[in-house]
Structure formats: C-alpha cells, structure tokens
Please model this.
Amino acid sequence: QVRLVESGGGLVQAGGSLRLSCSYFGRTFSSNAMGWFRQAPGKEREFVAVISWNGGSIYYADAVKGRFTISRDNTMNTVYLQMNSLKPEDTAIYSCAARGDSRAATGVYDYHYWGQGTQVTVST
Model:
C-alpha cells in the first residue's frame, strides 16, 4: 500500500515563492517516477512536473518552466516542488503522484497513486 502526503501549500502574494513537499509512505519509493499535478476550480487536472526515479529525466509544463523546480530525496522518500515567481494563475490544488514505474511520464492516467493535495493560492 502506498500513501502520499503533501504539505507546504498556502497563501502567497504574486511574485512570491512556496516549496511543496510530498512524503511517500510505502515500499519502493526510489523505483517510482514522481509527478506534480494541479487542478484549478472548474478546470481539469493538469501536469506540472515529473522526475524519474534517479532524477535523470525531468520535465515541466510550459506554463511553469523556468519558475518551478522539481527534486527528490530518495533517502527521505520525499519529492519537492520549489515554486518561484508565482502568479495568480498558479492558484490550484497541487497533488503529487507516484507512477508505479521508474520512467517519467506526463499523463494523468500514467500514475497509480495520488495524494490528497494541498491548496496554493496566489493573490494579486
């Protein structure tokens, strides 16, 4: 059984920064590619970033490229999302997901396990 728990969300002004963390409970964290997704009110869940099992492959959505950084610590079973230069359009519930595969992928249906999410709100 795998459980994912996100933390670090909150309210921040435009231009500010937040760091999200996702703790993975279960076996074989280091075998999983890990992704971050977000869902804004009235919109579908969308891909944000993914990191392969060893960090060798990293991909970002165009909307966050250059502002967000995904990383992982396999000794701590944790994946991070550093978000800088935040914009109001980044407001959403951010969820981490585990792929069940070591390779990076960007589709929602490529992921087997999901956390409950953490709210990020960016004010003007």
